[in-house]
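Write out the 3D structure for:
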Amino acid sequence: MEDVKKIIVVSDGTGRTAKRLMDAVLSQYVGHESQFHVEGIHSSVRTIRDLDKIVDSLSGECLIVFSIVSGNLRKHFHMRLHESGILHLNVLEPMLMTMAKFMGFHPDYRPGLLQLVDDKYYKKVDAIGYTVEHDDGLGHQIEAADIVIVGPSRTCKTPISMYLACNHGKRVANIPVIPDDGSKQRLLLRLENVDERKIFGVTMLPDVLSQIREVRSELFGGRRFGKVLVENYHDLAHVEAEVEFFRKLCYQHAWEIINVTRRAIEEVSAEILRSLHESYEE
């Protein structure tokens, strides 16, 4: 083991950047794995004291691969390693210097920014997965939603939900409201542990909603529904009654109502986010 060359990764962030690069390089040494070993990763190293402790602990032949953006820390670490005769490489420095020349100005030199980007990315992935699983009344973790959208059929619940998930990392559940007492009670039971400030009702003008449903009925009605059900689905009087049933339900439970008639999903989403932010600030 004394002959094994040690590789140590040091980072002011997570260390993933330097580790990934080392993995790519070491993959070119297939068959020689017994001659080197990645001994450890020191992450979130952001003080001179932390760097000194690492240098003082080094022994034997080793290579230090580090990704540190802070100028003062970078210079101090380089000086200590150079004085100790330890081979080292700052994997970020060549790219930072080249980008500075290309852009004509210096970068921010703030550690941990990549981690913030990664966290946002994974948050969106999680939100999209949750939102797909809780589309159109599906799913069993309604309490975990950031936003719950309820409304009559064909009121753009799914597009709004997916926009909020994909663009804002919000976990959204959407549930259709069916105008009968049995369905109403089942809905209320599912929402009993959800903060009412998270619940938003979406609706449309009855005549517009009727037209949208009529087009939908022509596409699918003949194969999936009976004739009477199809006619009721887009009949204006029936739609008016359904919208009124829904509005009363929202008023009874203090759910904010948003009219989405002929509005872009971006605009509706912005209104939901603004209202959500304001309600939690109160």
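The mean pLDDT is 86.
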